[in-house]
Amino acid sequence: MAQLFQIHPDNPQARLIRNAVDIIRQGGLVIYPTDSSYALGCHIGDKGAMERIRRIRKLDDKHNFTLVCRDLSEISTYAKVGNQQYRLLKTLTPGPYTFIHKATKQVPKRLQHPKRKTIGIRVPDNPITQALLDELGEPLMSSTLIMPGDDMPMTDPYEMRDILGHSVDLIIDGGYCGFEATTVVGMEEDTPVLFRVGKGDVSLFEE
Fold first, then answer.
1. What one-character DSSP code corresponds to residue 160?
2. Can you give the residue ranges of every domain in the chain?
3. How far apart are CA 14 and CA 19, in angstroms?
């Protein structure tokens, strides 16, 4: 049965963060809060944990996984970022946005879109997520916690434990964090393309 950690949403307990990261490093699959909804996360190099996410969500091989990063410097390791794109990222991160970039060679092929060679990148504005990433020292491979057949992400950690307690290793209860999708922005070319309007402010993309 999955462990359940109650972590303070504004002042995450360092001991629990360290324990959570130990679970991730050992190949564990965790449910954690972001600034838009709860998500499934695992170590970037862990193929087995990624396959568990696919099974839970019933995803095909076309699904775009997202790398959840600490900051802009980490983004540039995994995504090709030009000067104009950098300025936009600086304005919008951290925040509830997913940016679709051309992937660098640092990104495992299985995480990239099979045809376009792109990767989704996120820098959530959430203290628990930031604490996990700081302790881990690298991105989390992530996917929103939406169950097959549902339109909205799950919001109740105790319901998550009832349904997914034998499918994940840890559930982090960080309180209510919303259930709205991120705004998705295509950054493959110089001009950004708004793919999906979600929680983030889109006024920068309006003519």
1. H
2. 3-199
3. 9
Cβ contact 12:127 at 8 Å = yes
Looking at the DSSP bridge assignments, the partners of residue 184 are 98, 196
Cβ-based neighbours of 46, under 8 Å, separated by 6 or more: 27, 141
The CB density around residue 124, as the number of other CB atoms within 10 Å, is: 28
Q: How many Cβ atoms sit within 10 Å of the Cβ of residue 109? A: 9
Give the tens place of pLDDT for each residue, 64-116.
Answer: 789 999 999 899 899 999 888 999 999 999 999 999 999 998 888 877 777 77
Q: Which amino acid is at 163?
A: I
Q: Which residues pair with 196 in a beta bridge?
A: 184
> Would you call 114 exposed, middle or buried from its count of C-beta atoms within 10 A (0-12, 13-18, 19+)?
exposed
The answer to whether the CB of 97 falls within 8 A of the CB of 200 is: yes
Q: CA 78 to CA 120: how far, in whole Å?
A: 10
CA–CA distance, 79 with 186 (Å, rounded to integer) = 12
Structural contact between residues 146 and 57, judged by C-beta atoms closer than 8 angstroms: yes
Residue with tokens 């070319």: 189
Give pTM, 2 decimals: 0.94
Positive/negative CA dihedral, 9, 56, 60, 21: positive
Domain spanning 3-199: which CATH class is it, in words?
Answer: alpha beta
pLDDT tens by residue, 155-195: 999 999 999 999 999 999 999 998 888 999 999 888 899 99
